[in-house]
Amino acid sequence: MTEQGTVREPTGASADDAAPTEGADETPDDGATTGQTGASSVVATLEGAGVDTVFGVQGGAIMPVYDALYDSGIRHVTMAHEQAAAHAADAYGAVTGDPGVCMATSGPGATNLVTGLADANMDSDPVVALTGQVPTELVGNDAFQETDTVGVTTPITKSNYFASSADTVGDDVSTAFALAANGRQGPTLVDLPKDVTTDDTDAGASEPSVPDTVRVRERADAEDVEEAAETIAAADRPVILAGGGVIKGEATDEVRAFAVEHGIPVVTTMPGIGAFPEDHDLSMEMAGMHGTGYANMAITLTDCLIAVGTRFDDRLTGGVDSFAPDAEVVHVDIDPAEISKNVEADHPLVGDAGTVVEQIADAMPNSPDTEAWRDQCAEWQAEYPMDYAVSEDDPVKPQYVVETVDEATDDDTIVTTGVGQHQMWACQYWTYTEPRTWISSHGLGTMGYGVPAAVGARLAADDDQSVVCFDGDGSFLMTCQELVVAARENLDITVFVLNNEAIGMVRQWQDAFFEGRRMASEYPWVPQFDRLAEAFGVAGFRIEEYDDVADTVQEALAVDGPSVVDVYIDPTENVYPMVPSGGDNGQFALSEGHL
Amino acid sequence: MSGQGLPGPAPEDRERPTGRRNSQGIRIDPEAEAEHPPRRTVISALVEHEPGVLARVSGLFSRRQFNIESLTVADTQNDDWARITVVVEEPDPGIDQIEKQLAKVVPVIHVRELEDDALTRELVVVKVDADKPHEVQAITDMYGGRTLDAGPRTITVELTGDEQKIDDAIDAYRQFNIREIARTGQTALARGETKTAVVPDYLK
Ligand SMILES: Cc1ncc(C[n+]2csc(CCOP(=O)(O)OP(=O)(O)O)c2C)c(N)n1
């Protein structure tokens, strides 16, 4: 409990009232319940699946489920907005690897989840959403707070279910849970009509299990693996491209061992950040639109691309015609539909990332001779350093802030972000060494992800692990209301708002591609974020000059609870390198002059 | 304005790869450049007959911009299963994606592209002007159709057959002024002993 808030008793019920006292030993009749309902089966199923925390917002149609939670050991975190509940659950899932759970009522509660579920879907993050629904007999009548939630969320969930009876609702939830966690992970949803959750049932907890129609392949075909291994062994310029699937598939050890054993440079996608330590000699860091120059050179000139757990997003590939054009592609993925979807795989290997990488390792006839190639990669690293100019009189450079916070924190610190320039600086200038420490919105690019994700990550992280959020002023304004959760639950997170008084990434594009016509990208006025934080009961700080940076960062990190640092950054700073969309990765721009 | 940028050689000073890929991400081999003109084919999916499965499947097609010519769905020999037959016109990589994406839909049991010799049939109901009833009858007989309704002003017939036959018949009816057409879309089974869908033992 926090010092800030007074804790009130739930109205009408003290803890003692929870158990019926009068008439408790009489046989229940005339409508009295046995206490076992669809809702209690839902909650028992969550408990059985090992869920300890859920994120949500109350409401009419979901009330029976909340009522069942009242008697449960599961911790419920009340969010200010359902979108944040979905992001928090998503980050929780991304940090732990197990599904994060979010709950919302019908209608507006459910539709508010949509952005968060779409985000989780694009990033294959395991999330289970439970939504209230109007009673079955009202479904289809445009009843109060009715939305076709299953219909609305079909394209943005891995699978979803409309619960039809109290006796089977536990099975729906357990299936949703197993599907979210199994194979290629993703969000699932169970829509819970109010009568289904209030009806009596004898059903208790249901064991998570995936439907019989779902079969995930663990091992790739041995012959294909052999051919792939021979191709890798014969390559002159091999590169490993580690995607988010390496982290989600818990395959970082296997990928690291393989790279080191055979001396193969490693490039990551944005979701793959943390798959390989960025301080390692073989690390080329991130490739793609705002990837490092050396990663993009390596990926452009490689003759053998060993892609693991990536879907070849267009932010990574640029135009496919110029993507690794000389490379034979070995593609390892658990989802067969990713094979040759965007980039044709010469060696498709469907299976679990760790298992298949081990299979390849076992099949390698010899190591490729990569000495000259590694020298070339090192040359590019020297030629295209990630750098920025610091002049004491200028406003603070955002990159400097990112580096300072990195230095002031441990290696296992979790970073969350919003979406925009600050997000790119946070991935470029922070040195990630551990998986599940970079938690961001990749595929959907959702502004406002940062603060709720920090809440979810904080509750998922180890106690001695730090959680920091780099946010933009625009992104922060979209979900800063979630500071109320951080304050109420006294969550130790530190938010750095890299404040350029603009939705900076848009402004950068306007300057580059729209002749500097800055339509609706500059904020004529932003709140003082340190004071806004204080109004929420969160410690507020401000950085205006270089001299303040180191001390204020230390102070904010030292706060035992939430804090927000409003950092006035150089508003003219832009993100480079940059590959214009659909462009050629090898032709990245280092300045506006190159665009 | 910013734009001081980063150090390093400018784009034009960098080494360039020699190769290229085509729009499907396939490396262009100068000897045999892979070209993929669209082709028309029949995909058959056996699915669990549960609510929402058709919405999921059709949503998948529209969301991914697959070029779908017709889609039929109905029960099978087993009440718990339905068969979805889709005629698509796509280049090969697109057809491959349709199969893979369909297979991902949770209630889908089995998906495959049918061979050219598959037995595909469509039903069409055609309503034409009744000015020349005998000539209409002659065309109907020629295509093995049946008259469903004949009145002073309209004649309505039904025909079944493969796509080519239906197209030809409709062309023939045009001379009588076609008022309305309703086609069911293709449904199909694999020929002979070949199984249209392979159902794993644990689902039988
Ligand atoms: C919800 C949402 N709306 C709009 C966008 C489009 N968009 C991408 S980046 C960006 C600017 C982000 O501004 P800010 O959060 O201040 O970060 P900065 O780029 O200034 O660091 C916008 C508007 C988006 N990604 N997400």
UniProtKB/TrEMBL annotation, chain A:
Pathway of action: Amino-acid biosynthesis; L-valine biosynthesis; L-valine from pyruvate: step 1/4; Amino-acid biosynthesis; L-isoleucine biosynthesis; L-isoleucine from 2-oxobutanoate: step 1/4
Pfam family, one: TPP_enzyme_C
Domain named Thiamine pyrophosphate enzyme central: residues: 225-360
Domain of life: Archaea
GO molecular function: acetolactate synthase activity; magnesium ion binding; thiamine pyrophosphate binding
Gene Ontology terms describing biological process: amino acid biosynthetic process; branched-chain amino acid biosynthetic process; sulfur compound biosynthetic process
CDD domains named in the record: TPP_AHAS, TPP_PYR_POX_like
Keyword annotations of the record: Amino-acid biosynthesis, Branched-chain amino acid biosynthesis, Magnesium, Metal-binding, Thiamine pyrophosphate, Transferase
Domain Thiamine pyrophosphate enzyme TPP-binding, chain residue ranges per copy: 418-567
EC number: 2.2.1.6
InterPro entries to which the protein is assigned, alphabetical: Acetolactate_synth_lsu, AHAS_TPP, DHS-like_NAD/FAD-binding_dom, THDP-binding, Thiamin_PyroP_enz_cen_dom, Thiamin_PyroP_enz_TPP-bd_dom, TPP_enz, TPP_enzyme_TPP-bd
Cofactor(s), by name: thiamine diphosphate; Mg(2+)
Enzyme class: transferase
The reaction(s) this protein catalyses: 2 pyruvate + H(+) = (2S)-2-acetolactate + CO2
Every Thiamine pyrophosphate enzyme N-terminal TPP-binding domain range: 37-150
Region annotation (Disordered) ranges: 1-37
Cofactor note: Binds 1 thiamine pyrophosphate per subunit.
Family to which the UniProt record says this protein belongs: Belongs to the TPP enzyme family.
NCBIfam families the UniProt entry points to: acolac_lg
Protein name: Acetolactate synthase
UniProtKB/TrEMBL annotation, chain B:
Pathway it works in: Amino-acid biosynthesis; L-isoleucine biosynthesis; L-isoleucine from 2-oxobutanoate: step 1/4; Amino-acid biosynthesis; L-valine biosynthesis; L-valine from pyruvate: step 1/4
Residues passing through the membrane, by range: none
Keywords recorded for this protein, A-Z: Amino-acid biosynthesis, Branched-chain amino acid biosynthesis, Transferase
GO biological process, one term: branched-chain amino acid biosynthetic process
Coiled-coil ranges (or none): none
One Pfam family of this chain: ALS_ss_C
PROSITE patterns listed in its UniProt record: ACT
EC id: 2.2.1.6
Record keyword Transferase present: yes
Official protein name in the record: Acetolactate synthase small subunit
Gene Ontology terms for molecular function: acetolactate synthase activity
Disordered: region residues: 1-38
Cytoplasm recorded as keyword: no
Alphabetical list of Gene3D superfamilies matching this protein: 3.30.70.260, ACT-like. Chain A, domain 2
Top-rank lineage group of the source organism: Archaea
Domain ACT: 42-119
Record field: compositional bias (Basic and acidic residues): 28-38
Organismal lineage: Archaea, Methanobacteriati, Methanobacteriota, Stenosarchaea group, Halobacteria
Family statement: Belongs to the acetolactate synthase small subunit family.
InterPro entries listed in its UniProt record: Acetalactate_synth_ssu, Acetolactate_synth/TF_NikR_C, Acetolactate_synth_ssu_C, ACT-like_dom_sf, ACT_dom, AHAS_ACT, AHAS_small-like_ACT
